[in-house]
Amino acid sequence: MTDQLTGSAATTEWRAEDRVRARRAAIAGGVGTLIEYYDFSLYGYLAIVMAPLFFPSSDPATALLSALAVFGTAYLMRPLGGIVFGHIGDRFGRKKALLATLVCMGLGSMAMGFLPTHAQAGIWATVLLVVVRMVQGFSAGGEVGGSATFISESAPRHLKATYGAFTPLGSTMGFAMAAAVAGTVSAFTTDVQLESWGWRVPFLLALPLTLLCLWARTRVEETHGEDADSGPAQAPVVAVFRRQPLALLQSVGISVACNGTAYIGLTYMSIHLMKSLGYERTPVYWIATAVIGVVALAMPLGGVLADRIGRLRFTVISFAGFAIVTYPAMAVMHHSLWIAAIAYLLIMVNTIGAQVGSYTLMPLLFDKDVRFTGVAMGWNLGVVIAGGTAPFVAVWLVAKTGNILSPAVFVIVAAVIGLVSVAGVARRSKVAQEQLG
Questions:
Q1: Which of the residues 51, 56, 321, 388 could staple to 350 if both were Cys, CB 3.0 to 4.6 A apart?
Q2: What is the pLDDT of residue 9?
Q3: pLDDT tops 60 at residue 7
């Protein structure tokens, strides 16, 4: 962490010379992450529509579980993507890696929109679906770690969370945009049209969105320095495991908590409202859009607050909020759709601090020459454990226990893991705590 700016003189110099560069990095990182997560999360929102098209079954629950299993399978590719794109980012520069992740995701989403269904291609439709999802997972594996690292290296020490908030702003807004597009298509098509061709439209929108983001990312300056080609003496992934195993373990714990809590709201809650509580599909999509959109737009405010009160403290408050609020909020959702919407918002407000804190803290745990790889590995391992599995585990818990509130237990466990991990970070040296806030 010796590369971090310290002292008032460094702050003054940054304000005079680098404000535009930091702003461009934050916008490019946030917009890119938005596009990535729009592409990646569409499948989760449309799973309830796509399930019978790719996994025909007499039991709708079995078809949905199969579709959600494919959703989780994509996450298995994320650590590999993190290693590959992390290697590129730590060896050859952050910008090259972030451009590569974006192109990979855009092509994967376009392919998703052209897939044949089971009725058209039989088992090959399912095979192609899995392959495309794995490509998307591979791409997403390098995105978040790269964006968080890139923005962190472009921002001064006292504004790490303020600028770092653009990564969760982008990722969360990507989910909101996906829900909005899914809601729009659902509203303007009949059930037959949606199942026939309507579900393809959101995926095909990936092309113009990807081109827009490519333009934004080509305008930013590299942060890796003149010696980008040198990197660590060992492969970055090997160097992380050998030199900073504790930082990696702490980052995995933080990621487990951040993703395990957030993904219940980002991907499962729509399924919960439609399947478990019986609310209509289109209004549920719009509620998800509104709730996730409000939370996303509040991320920059959360970043400012985190820099003021302390990043560690803000993260602890948010994980504790998830542990306390989730169960009672889900317990009142059956009363009416409006109450469900308010309860949904009360749960998701906690993800502001959880995500802003996580995205800001993790890059500061690793040395610069392995930072892209370290953040990507820590984040993706946590995502595999608790992110991609969240909707599947939630549906499985309800099916096995018969209790529609059982997914709240998953959130509580994830939040507790986050509190333990952050407590471990808080016990670092005084210098580290000053850097982490």
A1: 321
A2: 39
A3: no
